[in-house]
Amino acid sequence: MSERTASGVHITSLRTLVVVWIALLIGTWLTVTATYFDFGSLNLWIGLAIATGKALLVALYFMHMRWDRPFNAFVFLTAFAFLALFIGLALMDSAHYQDVVIPGYAPALQQ
Amino acid sequence: MASPAHTGGPHLAHHFANLDQQYQSAKLGMWVFLATEVLFFGGLFCAYVVYRANHPEVFLYAHQFLDKRLGALNTAVLICSSFTIAWAVRAAQLKQVRLLILLLSLTFLLASGFLGVKYIEYRQKWEHGLLWARRYHPEVHLVQEGPGHDVEVPGAAPPGPGAQAAQEAPVTPAADGDADRSRIADAASGPVGLAEPMPASGEHRVVAEPHNAQVFFSIYFLMTGLHGIHVLVGMGLMVWLIALAWRGAFAGGNFTRVDMFGLYWHLVDLIWIYLFLLLYLVH
Amino acid sequence: MAVSTPVLPLTDRAAPAGATYLNAERGLRSWLFTLDHKRIGVMYLVVILASFLAGGIFALLVRTELLTPGPTIMGPDTYNKMFTLHGTVMIFLFIIPGIPATLGNFVLPLMLGAKDVALPRLNLASFWIWVTGATVAISAIVLGGVDTGWTFYTPYSTTTNTAVIPMTLGAFILGFSSIFTGLNFIVTIHKMRPEGMTWMRMPLFLWGIYATAIIQVLATPVLGITLLLLVAERVLGVGIFDPALGGDPVLYQHFFWFYSHPAVYIMILPAMAIMSEVIAVFSGKRIFGYRFIAASSIAIAILSFLVWGHHMFVSGQSSLANLVFSALTFAVAIPSAVKVFNWVATMYKGSVRLLTPMLYALSFLFLFTIGGLTGLFLGALATDVHLTDTYFVVAHFHYVMFGGTVIAFLAGLHYWWPKMFGRMYSERWGRVGALLIFVGFNLTFFTQFVMGSHGMPRRYFNYLPRFEGLHQASTVGSYVLGLGFMVVAAYLLHSLFRGAPAPANPWGSATLEWETSSPPPPHNFDEEFDASDPYDIESLEYDPAGGGYRRHDPSAIRLRPAGAP
Asked: Domain limits at A35?
């Protein structure tokens, strides 16, 4: 029994907003706390997982994606898919030409 | 054409068949715009990923000059502002105009707070000479207080062994020099990899600055700078919305503009969530 | 420009009284602040064709200089600026906005039976953003020009002493115009199709515009950040792309080409979209392979994002990336080929009328096929190493961009001209123009394939004497081209004042824009449409009394008056 506007648009309940808000603040605390522990190579991925969890909360609840047409979410996710493509291929290429890069080359900088 | 000061409820533009089509069109349009913003910022994230993957030592070193506490504070500020704007959309939907104005104003204040903290951080960087490439003149360096724990201390980093010999005389790009042609410096034959950390005065070891540490700060200023511009634009839009609300534009339940702004603002928050992680919390 | 006599549509309905979109409101302000997509399309047409003229003049200057080795009419630094300005003006001001902003804006809502695009104010904003961006970019010309080539490769672009900043800022602003146009079209096609017009009953022109819009929205922001970074590099010295400051110039090229390769599909997809309409109508037949053409448009849009590294084979890109991008490049040719086969199959056993739009469409088939096939030579690593940065590349992209997009633009312009302005142009002069352009184009650019494969480098002011003959032939060709365009401009402009009044449906097309008068009234239609088969061409019959076509069975598209249940 969700509230709706006269034209039928879903209105997020205040309770939901507050719960998500608190969850986000806890998530932030969690992110910072995690940096005081060393999980080795997992450090970055743990941080990204928490950040993505927060991002999902913002997107689904604050940005209303949970109750919106799925196509809007599809549009948003498509952007990330193409971004991943861009970063992925650029990263693959740059990793493979590092052997011809002169280390520390920056002659225009005054040291 | 919807008139901005129309107070009697949502106005149906002549080319739409019904209000739902109009609202859903605005919504889809906004999500498409957010997709473009993801790709716009995404370029900077790409630069970040490429440089960090290929030069992790630069990021491990340089991020320590950022204040995690201020970063976390800013994250909390933006999260609170996301909360207030989401509530503001709800208020607009329920025609609670005074609450709407209050929440928009709160969001504005939180955004100002964010920029205020950013100003403090930028000011610190300026004073310490920790700016982007061409203006990178660090007045601080790191000493190792314990395993994995470095502390920032004033004073420029002492040069590592061989560092002097490695540096060419600086070459000015043609933009401020020779008017006729651009010149590219001859290849340097510098040292390979990090300079060895050398013991400084006292018991603490100076952490040697890796080559091209300035890249981190270039990326830092580009990413947070572009994000800050988006915050500023958002603040301008909030002033506009507050003015509209004051004139009664939302009294009739026409909440679309607040809703669309909210989506934009949440994206600004989303981007910061990742910026905070990737710039401040490298380890 | 006043069309004072409204044209009677050749249908069962009573003629609409008086006003067309051209004369309903008068005065400069009614145009500059209009929300009418048709007026916006016409304004775009004016400024975009003006840009084409400017870019063409730069081209003629380049070609004239190349009549002889060494200086002919200018020195080497000026030459670098000429080809850079030719490229930047043609690409950012003309061809990228090109078909979508002009014909797309005008035709899209009409084809949907709609009154306007979904976001008319955004549409007007797009136009004014274009004007702003173009002004900033053009200011680079008076501020000393740019000599980096339209690709702005670092580190030269970050260090050269020319007006790089206004040009890149201008292109940055123009990018937003492109993004907003694409955004508008996506929303319009998703939300404003009439009932009964499912995705698979949409005209193929809309599929092409839609696929283009997807690329505009996803790729252009990356160009935006790239140009912004370039400006930051020059002004602040951020050192992301400049190796002198610790940056990576190959990364610049990744950034640049991630947009600029999909950009070429922004250029060609609308052209292909026009082809689907023109070839079907002028073959008097239903389009062959509708689903394949529709699907290939989307396939091209997606695949276009996977191949950008083929511009970077000799840039310092790793061998692994070279391999991957070369392989993917062969894939992207397939959907384009699918389209060409379907168009040819449409013509087979059709009743082909060789009117001006069709002459251009046939030219497109021939020229685009050559251009596309030569792209495969360049996509293969072994041959690309020899052909890269030669005139072979220049010829390839002119065959696809000019022989493809510009020719298709001319086809579309001639096809929709009667609808836009209510006038018929001279068919005889149309043929003259098409012939001059076809001959001039091939003379200009086929010679460049030969030169390039013999080693003539691109962007070179000077050249070996053995290339002189070919260069001179190419330059003569460019003058013939110029003459051809002057002929086209002359008879089109003449038609605005003296052309025969156009019927509602002069060509016999079954898409919805022909169901209203030529030119349309400001609100487009007096009825709402429930459903239509956009390729039910054979059901239309010619009415000799008015010189146009009418539906044999008007109830086939189930009209009802606007507002009726």
From this structure: 1-68
Q: For each of chain C's 565 residues, which pLDDT tens digit applies?
A: 444 333 334 443 333 457 899 999 899 999 999 999 999 999 999 999 999 999 999 999 999 999 999 999 999 999 999 999 999 999 999 999 999 999 999 999 999 999 999 999 999 999 999 999 999 999 999 999 999 999 999 999 999 999 999 999 999 999 999 999 999 999 999 999 998 899 999 999 999 999 999 999 999 999 999 999 999 999 999 999 999 999 999 999 999 999 999 999 999 999 999 999 999 999 999 999 999 999 999 999 999 999 999 999 999 999 999 999 999 999 999 999 999 999 999 999 999 999 999 999 999 999 999 999 999 999 999 999 999 999 999 999 999 999 999 999 999 999 999 999 999 999 999 999 999 999 999 999 999 999 999 999 999 999 999 999 999 999 999 999 999 999 999 999 999 999 999 999 999 999 999 999 999 999 999 888 877 789 999 989 998 887 799 887 766 676 666 555 5
Phi first, then psi: give them for residue C459, nearest 5 degrees: 60, 25
Could you tell me which chains touch chain B, where touching means 3 or more CB pairs under 8 A?
A: A, C
Nearest CA in chain C to B34: C217
Claim to verify: residue A91 and residue A47 sit in the same structural domain: no
| Residue B254 distance to chain C (closest CA, Å) | 17
Tell me if C191 and B32 make a contact (CB, 8 A cut-off).
no
What are the boundaries of each domain within chain C? 34-561
The residues that bridge with B174 in the sheet, in sequence order, are none
Q: What is the mean pLDDT of chain B?
A: 84
Best of B79, B257, B268, B274 to disrupt the A interface by mutation (most A CBs within 10 Å)? B79
Q: Closest chain A residue to B168 measured between Cα atoms?
A: A107
Are A53 and A34 in the same domain?
A: yes
What homologous superfamily is domain C34-561 in, according to CATH? Cytochrome c oxidase-like, subunit I domain (1.20.210.10)
Q: Residues A5, A55: one domain? A: yes
Tokens of C193: 């199709």
Both tokens of residue C325?
């991008």
Which residues in chain A have their CB less than 8 angstroms from residue C237's CB? Answer: 108
The DSSP secondary structure of C297-329, one letter per residue, reads HHHHHHHGGG-GGGG-TTTT--HHHHHHHHHHH
Question: Which residues does chain C have within 8 Å of residue A96's beta carbon, measured at their own beta carbons?
Answer: 318-321
Residue of A nearest to B42 (CA): A83
In a domain, residue A111? The reply is: no
Name residues whose C-beta falls within 8 Å of residue C38's C-beta, 6 or more positions apart in sequence.
C21, C105, C106, C420, C519, C520, C522, C524
Chain A interface includes C218 (CB < 8 A): yes
Domain locations along chain B:
19-129+214-280
Q: What is the DSSP letter of C529?
A: -
Strand-pair category, C500-501 with B140-146: unpaired
Give the Cα separation of C153 and C148 in Å (integer): 7
Domain count, chain A: 2
- Measured between its terminal Cα atoms, the distance across chain A in Å is 66
Which residues in chain B touch residue A91, judged by CB atoms under 8 angstroms apart? 49-50, 53
Say if residues C278 and C352 touch (Cβ distance below 8 Å): no
Predicted structure pTM score:
0.92
The tens digit of pLDDT for each residue in C40-95 reads: 999 999 999 999 999 999 999 999 999 999 999 999 999 999 999 999 999 999 99
- The amino acid at residue C134 is A
Give the torsion sign (CA, C456, C459, C460, C461).
positive
The number of residues making up chain C comes to: 565
Contacts of residue C141, Cβ cutoff 8 Å, sequence gap at least 6: C85, C163
User: What does CATH list as the number for B19-129+214-280?
Assistant: 1.20.120.80
The pLDDT tens digits for C289-310 are: 999 999 999 999 999 999 999 9
Q: Which residues pair with C550 in a beta bridge?
A: C541
